[in-house]
Amino acid sequence: MSVSASAENLSTDTQSCDGGSMCLELALEGERLCKAGDCRAGVAFFQAAIQAGTDDLRTLSAIYSQLGNAYFYLGDYNKAMQYHKHDLTLARTINDKLGEAKASGNLGNTLKVMGKFAEAIQCCKRHLEISRCLGDKLSEGRALYNLGNVYHAQGKHLGRVGQNDPGHFPQEVRECLMQAVTYYEENLELMRSLGDRQAMGRACGNLGNTCYLLGDFTRAIRYHTERLTIAREVGDKAAERRANSNLGNSHIFLGQFENAAEHYKRTLALAEELGDAAVEAQACYSLGNTYTLLREYRVAEEYHARHLAAARKLQDRVGEGRACWSLGNAHAALGNHEKALYYAKEHYSISKELGDVLGVATAQMNIGDLCKVLGMPNEIETLEQASAAAAASAEEGAAQTPFNALRVRRQSMEQLSLIQLTPDKKKEARKGAGEGEGDEGAEGEDEACQLKERKKPPRKPMARAESEDLHTESFFELLSRCQSGRMDEQRAVLNCKEGRVRSKAGKLLRSASSSDKNVSPSEEMLNMITDMQSERMDSQRAELRPLPKKPHKLAKGASLPGLRPQRTTCTKPEEDFLEMIARFQGSRLEDQRTELPSLKPERRPKTLPDDDFFNQLMRAQSGRMEDQRATIPVKDNRANKGDSNSKK
Q: pLDDT value at position 519?
């Protein structure tokens, strides 16, 4: 829904001077900027219009729709989904069926891009259902096209798992693609009845791509040919370039390499005309591989050299590596083994830089074969052996590291007793040392401690174990007594006044207990620490204050941004209480929400086509390889051997 269309339906009485006209003017300016291509500035004007506010729900619905489309264009799909949901809510509120259908379609497209295919299918089916009820053929055609797009995208998404060639996808993927074909064909028939040539071209292009994925290449060629014809009629150069590229891919799988080369040449010419350097490099790559299949290696070498230059210009390292690999093969086929070795080494270095294990292995094999042909030593193999020997020697040196010192230190730490480190045990040790030999200097010196240990008489191991058990029990008893008091002080009470009285009483009890003279020094110190910690805990307690009751609450639609609230009186105190809880708890819940880490988009090489030509080569060559296989006549050989033996 456009803002200008909704503005025509407004009367001057409804737009008062309290900000409604300002909202409409800002929204119209935002719509103008979005149509001019400046969606970021248009979003700013739409947001200002929402801040101004309006009472007209149709205007607000149009603003939401335009904002969702602008955010979709900018790539912020979460905000686009949010505003399309607002638009859908308002359309249902005012019972605008056509607006609901459009909002459902926009929401379905946004969910498709976000990868939520099940929800997108539900929204698009709702769009189709409403359009058919209203008898709107254009809206029905858009709904059919959107449904085909969702199923097509879902099939491609599921088909990315594993290495699958066109026509060899799992059953789940094939079902999605067949559903897409069904909806695309319905859209094509409807657009033919309406005479919309551009919509027919889009449907034919998508049908060709879907049939290509299903492995029906003949049918794909038929649809892409119709797409090419329509693109030439309407003068759409970009669509014509895409149709030629798709036709070339389909002819490759049928083994029609000459036809594929013609379509790729037309793709290259259109890419040069449009000034698209990346597509130009892709066309050169496809042409080089096609002429390799035709065994015209010199022409293939020219196109691969152009692809390499374009990849270096666009800083596409993956495409550069593929170009070096292809150039090495072309020069090897032409007999230029020195150049082939140079490009093989370039391919090896690029693959090693990118971490391409398969590329490194392929380059090593090519370098080894070329070095044997040229009678040269394999430098790469020598370097690999040297690095492997260095790694092995480093591992041996690490295995001979002396761990005995570390083990002795660890055993000495295991002999320590935790109870012997308590203050009471230290005092007892000092008293025992004073009675036996007197005060001999500082406690921290290691030599004095060793002398004391030597002069002490040996103790029986049984007595030592019993004393350790006694001290362990006394220590844990002291620890539990001190911790129980702290646990009681940390308990919270609902009555703030009683809590204060209890905390004061607790302080008095603690002060009285601390003033007891019969308490040992260790208990006195722990009581002092407990008093200090309890005061800090009391200072951190929060008081529960009753919240003021609000006699009014907002109307149902006031939660939408830009809509002026209308207050209504509430007669149920339970609703006020629940609303108060939801209001105060809602902010806390929103603060605790965490967004899932967004996946980083996989960077695709700029100069390589979407359908990797290597898979196409393998499929195209597999049939020829099977035809060239020869069966060994085992019985005939045995019969011939028997005849030769009889002759002998």
A: 57
